[in-house]
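TICKET: design request
STATUS: open
ATTACHED STRUCTURE:
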């Protein structure tokens, strides 16, 4: 199955979760989908010069991405990758974090 197809399914599930009642992302790709939505919200805030508190993005990230593993993908250490990236390989992006985490069946690895 193509990465794009899986990611679209996961991103749709994340968007639906915002409407039906939030549940924390169940896999790395879901965390990345949340980050994409937040990036777009930040762009929208800049374009329309919305009057949001200065730290709004950090506060929203704290609520939506509590204990997010994907943050390690954005960090760079001396070798170009942070130690936190261990276990965040691409092959695990659609694997549930734990047995109780939900990942849409069509996207599950």
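STATUS: resolved
RESOLUTION: sequence designed for all positions
ATTACHED SEQUENCE:
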């Amino acid at each position: 199955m193509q990465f794009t197809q899986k990611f679209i399914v996961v991103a749709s599930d994340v968007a639906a979760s915002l409407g039906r009642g939030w549940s924390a992302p169940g896999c790395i790709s879901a965390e990345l989908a949340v980050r994409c939505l937040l990036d777009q919200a930040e762009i929208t805030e800049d374009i329309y010069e919305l009057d949001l508190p200065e730290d709004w993005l950090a506060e929203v990230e704290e609520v939506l991405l509590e204990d997010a593993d994907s943050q390690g993908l954005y960090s760079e250490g001396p070798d170009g990758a942070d130690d936190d990236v261990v276990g965040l390989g691409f092959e695990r992006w659609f694997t549930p974090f734990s047995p109780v985490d939900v990942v849409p069946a069509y996207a599950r690895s």
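CLOSING REMARK: The two ends are 10 Å apart (CA to CA). The chain has a mean pLDDT of 88.
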